[in-house]
Each structure stands twice: as C-alpha cells, then as structure tokens.
Write a structure and sequence with these properties.
globular, alpha+beta, 4 helices, seven-stranded antiparallel sheet, 35% strand
Length: 148
C-alpha cells in the first residue's frame, strides 16, 4: 500500500533527521570549522550547526551569478558580514576582522543528484583558507553531492 498523509510526513521527517545526523557525524572530523550549514536550492536546510537565516541563504543562491556583485557585496552569515576576496563558479570565500583576529567563510555550490546544494563553513583562529577549503570540497564530494 502507498503511504499518504501523516505517515508520509513522518517518513520525510525521519529521512531528514537521518541525513542531518549523517552530515553531523561526517563534519565532526573537521575540528577547525566553527559553523556549517548545508542547504538546497530552495533554501531548505539539510543540516546546520547555527540558526540559518532564510534571507541570508536566499542571497547565497545568487552568489555564483556574477563575480563583481558577490565580491562587492560580500557574504552575510549568522548575522556576520564577511568580505569576499576569492570567487570561482563554485566557491566564494573571504574573511572578517583584522590579521591575527579574523574569521573566514567559504560558500561552496555542489551539483547533486537532485539539484544544486550549498555548504557554507566558517572558521577562526590560526586556520587558513588554504586548508579549510580543500576540507570543505572533500566533505561536499563525499557527503553533500550524494544527497537526494
């Protein structure tokens, strides 16, 4: 028999919780990440370690349309504004603060089975984008690109 109504909603809720838990376990390997948010092209959050603002996520959806706009505007996440200094068709990253006391951000657009997914990660301390970004790309390749 085909499930309809509340049973379907319950099944979807269980599936979403299982995906979030799997992403949480995978992300635990990356100790220097301050925050992580994974969401889809409709701004549905799949997993987040912070309260995700839908308006901020909507802005991320257009971050890869035009380099000049994104670099000029920067990225805002969890209420914090970051200057963007690097941009490609699938990565936008930058930082806020001053040398010795700054926090980085990277937004990564990932092609998945059922449409684009996005992952944004922040970090602080002595961590560098040269290390964090390859970690995020690896995490996304192994965990986000395979999401339904």
């Amino acid at each position: 028999p085909t499930k309809t109504g509340p049973a379907s909603a319950t099944d979807k809720g269980r599936k979403a919780a299982a995906m979030s838990e799997a992403l949480s376990k995978a992300a635990a390997a990356y100790k220097d990440w301050t925050s992580l948010c994974v969401f889809d092209e409709k701004t549905n959050v799949v997993h987040s370690t912070v309260e995700a603002d839908k308006n901020e996520l909507k802005d991320f959806l257009t971050a890869f349309v035009d380099r000049s706009t994104t670099v000029g505007k920067g990225l805002t996440f969890a209420g914090d504004h970051y200057d963007v200094h690097r941009w490609t068709e699938s990565l936008a990253y930058g930082r806020k603060g001053v040398p010795g006391d700054c926090q980085g951000i990277c937004l990564h657009k990932v092609k998945s089975k059922n449409g684009d997914k996005y992952a944004v990660v922040t970090w602080g301390g002595l961590s560098t984008s040269a290390r964090i970004i390859p970690e995020l790309q690896e995490f996304c390749k192994n965990n986000v690109a395979t999401l339904n």
